[in-house]
Amino acid sequence: MPESDRRPRLTPAVADVRRAVREATADLPEGSLVLVALSGGPDSLALAAATAFEAPRAGHRAGAVIVDHGLQPDSAEIAERAAEQARMLGLDPVRVVRVQVSGEGSPEAAARQARYAALLQVRKELGAAAVLLGHTLDDQAETVLIGLARGSGAESLWGMHPRIGFLRRPLLQVRRATTHAACVDAGLEAWRDPHNDDDRFLRVRVRHRVLPMLDEVLGGGVAQALTRTADTLREDAEALAHFAQEQIGDLVEHAEGGLSLDAGALAANPPALRQRIIRLAVQSEFHTALSRQQTLEVSRLVTDWHGQGPIHLPGIRVTREGRRLVFVAA
Asked: What coarse category fits the chief subcellular location reported for this protein (predicted)?
């Protein structure tokens, strides 16, 4: 009998994870295939168990994808153990994919890039409607705090989005302690990734040193406060993106080799919206992402125009010609 058909004790932790999955998949058409990205750790294992329970009750099918990064000597055995747990839970299909992690950049970033590419490839092959990721509220808080420390702008403080394309993160409002408890309550033995205790990784130091210290100094609730900040900033950013998209059609004139923007109309907008319009226009036309400093340089041709010469950006030249900013490929 599949594990999903058994009746384990319904504890608050199990109920919380199931509820999160139910809400995250409620909009999927009946008969959809939902895949869980399963590492075998407590977060993704609790997610897999909840999905195995909830999916058939919503008329969905549920499967799992296990990505073997090959970064540990016994990674193949760990992946196969996770696959066997998925099958015992009643998930089908279950795919194990081995990836090659590039040596370029940080190991964490390289592994993440390889993992997401594999997940999206399997989703495409199987025709799945969604891939569920096991990131929790605590993961979100760590992401926001790291972004804040690096000072890389408001976008870095949005944290992880609940949905990006086919990727969904049902557990962003669920604590890590809850997923661990859900595994214990359901009698599931989770794998403990030694990398999660390795202080060489920034995220591990934030998890085990920085956040506990902040909780102690500030009286607790830091993780929840950081995730609320991320939610608020993301909502504000989505509103600005909507307003920018509404205006850009009226402000842009396309020309051979580039485009131009109405400087007077740009000047009438508040700085946050003006700069977003500039970035969006450049991204759409030249497929180039401007940094904040580059955007401010362009913006000064609108707000501080006194006859200065062109601005040279990577692959783009920007000039002020009368009431228009002209962007052309360099």
From this structure: cytoplasm
